[in-house]
Amino acid sequence: MAEGFLQAVRREVERLQHRGFLEALMAVAALAAMADGDYGIAEKYRAEALLSELPIFDVFDLREAMEILDEDVFALRSDRVAATRRLENRVAGYAGSPDRARTLLRAAHAVITCDGATTAAEQAEFERLARLLGLEPDDLALA
C-alpha cells in the first residue's frame, strides 16, 4: 500500500515539475499552427502525432495536451494580440534552457511544415519564436 502511495506522489510531483513545459509546448504549437491564420486538420493531427512521441506523455495524458492546444487556438482566434502575449510569456521562460528551447523550436518546425509548403507568415513566425527562445533561426532552419 505504501508503495502505491509513493508512486502516486512521485507521479504528481513529476506532473507539477513538467506542467510549465507542457503549457509552453502547447503555446508553441498553437502559435505555429495559427501563423498563417488557419488551424487545419493537418496541423491538428501533426501536432497530436508529434506530441504523442514525446516522453512528457509518460506523465501527461495526450488528451489533456490537446485540450490546452485547442484552448490556445481558440484564444488566438478570439483576441490575437492578447493571446499571443500570454502564449509568448509561457514560451519565453525557456530561453535560458537551450535543450528545452530547441525542443520547443523543433515542435514549431514540425507543426509549420506538416502541411507541405511553408508560407512567408509561417517562416516569419518560426523566426520570431526562435528569437523569443534565444536561438538563431538558422539553428533549425525551415526547409
TrEMBL record:
Any Pfam family: TerB
Protein name: Co-chaperone DjlA N-terminal domain-containing protein
Signal peptide: none
Matches recorded under InterPro entries: DjlA_N, TerB-like
SUPFAM superfamilies xref list: TerB-like (SSF158682)
Positions of the Co-chaperone DjlA N-terminal domain: 23-141
Domain of life, per lineage: Bacteria
